[in-house]
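# nightly structure sweep
# worker-07 picked up a monomer target from the shared queue
# config: single-sequence mode, recycle default, output format = structure tokens
# input follows
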Amino acid sequence: MLSYIFRRALYAIPILIGVNLITFLLFFVVNTPDDMAHMHLGAKRVTPEAVEQWKAERGYDKPLVYNDSAEGSNKFTETIFFENSVKLFMFEFGESDEGRDISYDIGERMWPSLAIALPVFVIGLLANITFALIVAFFRATYVDVWGVFICVVLMSISGLFYIIGGQYLIGKLLHLVPISGFDEGVNSVKFLILPVVISIIAGIGSGTRWYRTIFLEEIGKDYVRTARAKGMPENVVLFKHVLKNGLIPILTGAVVVLPMLFMGSLIMESFFGIPGLGSYTIDAINSQDFAIVRAMVFLGSVLYIIGLILTDISYTLVDPRVRLQ
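# output follows
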């Protein structure tokens, strides 16, 4: 098993290097430091001196990948590529274009994102699997038909409708919880209830249909018919056999979204004023803070690759045959 995990981890290295190179090309070759300076300064007639000063303050005045004026190894280290791309592998994100420590901001903002994402992930997963099992248990009945119909309706509604409708109904009319904002400690719970509930409701439709398809596929297999022929109750067949054998596709959808627990929800955090990594990324895009955007792109890539490795590890736990592949 260790060799299997080691092979999967090695596959991640070239992927991460490729993502880093593409990010560097997009931010410093396609979109040059001069372009970033003009976009950030926001003036139609920017003097060359102002552009050079902006670049010098952020270290963008150095050569891209090779510095002829430096000596020794500094020819490669005193470059934009080393300062802004290679150091990312050491998780040295540097400072934002506004002079803030990006690593410190990420450490502070990841907790509000986790405070929303963890309950949504756990409760949403349990709710989706439970509803999917109920619909599959009553397959080809009115419960199944109406359950699928409700799921399709929920999937057809935009996520913005859930957010705005929830804020208006629960926050403004009923005054049960604040519409937006955030606080520290226990006081943050009242600000998290509404976005968590809305996120769970918005995802029930697609989640239930996905898991229902998995369970119905398992129900039609020979081992289920054999279990029923032996006289096993239907609830035992569903929970002991169908659910267990449907874990691989379930883990595929569940473990891969784990990186989003740290990255946060861009739309949800922005609408509810949650100071998480999602709103951090949106604010950086709006303010054209390219250093933060690069750091978040790289961090998202790392977390996604970790999610894929965790998915492979989880496969070996539920299906030992995977270890031989």
